[in-house]
Specification:
Layout (H helix, E strand, L loop, with lengths): L1 E3 L3 H14 L7 E3 L2 H10 L4 E5 L4 H5 L5 E6 L13 E3 L4 H13 L15 E5 L8 H13 L4 E5 L6 H5 L7 H10 L4 H5 L3 E3 L2 E4 L5 H5 L3 H14 L4 E5 L7 H6 L3 E5 L4 H16 L3 H5 L1 E4 L13 H6 L2 H11 L5
Parallel strand pairs: 1-2, 1-3, 3-4, 4-5, 6-10, 6-11, 7-9, 7-10, 11-12
Antiparallel strand pairs: 8-9
Length: about 325
């Protein structure tokens, strides 16, 4: 991906941020002059050209590139009104990349892309017990692992509250991922247009509507997780399994390890025993062997509205997760 802007510092800063975070399966190369860009294009293949909309279209047309997206400083007009699709320049690098990847994948001829390498480790977090800090643990696991390798979080909760916890609005979510997956057009490039980032961890925003979860079957969920693990360049995939009854087993079977938060009360113990019996009756002994029960510390005295995840990340629960990972036998 070649980047040119009349503000010479913009292209360099953008390339530094994107290359450092590995947000796309391309190398981002910044240019400070059109002459250098033309010279480079004459010797190398440019798959995507991201260029200032102040550059005359005749100049842009003379640069050999697979796709062109312009950087707009004002209002972004539709493709039918302009010669090239555009993204608004003055937003975060993550937002720019999401929009560029979406426009790139919307081309009539979309090639298939995958990142080859070792399959990612898949960590599932599941419990039949409610109110056990399962989602909190999943987010902390993802954030901690992201410091060591590229990590993505995916959750199958019907009402996760993640948008309010992390802040900001999600224009895309798991429903969009499922749509492209069912169409056969989901790949690592398309994923870059859908994924968000919290600190070092990528995450797919959960569904907006619970009805979308009802339409997903277990095999489909399992295949999606396998694609994330095998073709998208991640080292870790963290799955907040939620409590989807008909989707449960295929998702758990994808996991290399399943962390199961537990509680000590009689009702919780009965639920855990019942789930263990269910795995045994359905012949899922191998899945049962990958389950590690964990009793998470209670994290009280948190200030409401004071950055919940930040508080638990450096609190007792965060310390517990870091210690758990340090001694994990699967690593």
């Amino acid at each position: 991906m070649a980047v040119y802007d009349v503000d010479q510092g913009y292209a360099q800063r953008f390339a530094d941020v994107v290359n450092l975070k590995e947000k796309v399966p391309f190398t981002v190369v910044p240019f400070t002059s059109l002459e250098l860009l033309r010279e480079y294009a004459g010797r190398h293949r440019i798959e995507i050209l991201l260029i200032s909309d102040t550059v005359p279209k005749a100049e842009i047309g003379g640069i050999r590139a697979g796709s062109v997206v312009t950087l707009a400083e004002g209002d972004v007009v539709s493709v039918t009104e302009a010669d090239y699709p555009a993204v608004y320049k003055y937003q975060s690098a993550d937002s720019v990349i999401r929009e560029v990847m979406a426009k790139y994948c919307d081309r009539p001829a979309d090639e298939a892309f995958m990142v080859l390498g070792r399959r990612a480790r898949v960590l599932g977090i599941y419990s039949p017990v409610g109110r056990c800090f399962k989602t909190s643990m999943a987010l902390l696991l993802g954030q901690q692992l992201a410091r060591e390798g590229k990590t993505v979080y995916i959750g199958f909760e019907e009402f996760s509250g993640l948008e309010r916890i992390l802040g900001g609005e999600h224009k895309n979510d798991l429903s969009d991922v499922l749509y492209y997956f069912r169409q056969g057009s989901f790949n690592v490039v398309r994923l870059r247009s859908l994924v968000y980032t919290w600190k070092d961890m990528d995450y797919i925003a959960p569904v907006r509507y619970p009805e979308d979860m009802e339409q997903m079957n277990g095999d489909e969920a399992g295949q999606l997780i396998e694609k994330l693990a095998s073709e998208c360049g991640y080292e870790y995939v963290v799955v907040d399994v939620g409590r989807p009854a008909r989707n449960l087993l295929p998702v758990l079977e994808c996991c290399d390890v399943i962390y199961m938060p537990v509680r000590d009360d009689d009702v919780s113990a009965a639920k855990l025993d019942e789930f263990a019996d269910y795995l045994n009756v359905t012949g899922r002994q191998k899945t049962a062997e990958r389950i590690q029960r964990v009793k998470l510390p209670f994290h009280g005295n948190l200030k409401r509205g004071g950055g919940y995840l930040e508080q638990i990340l450096w609190g007792e629960l965060g310390d517990y997760v870091r210690k758990l990972l340090k001694g994990a036998p699967w690593r």
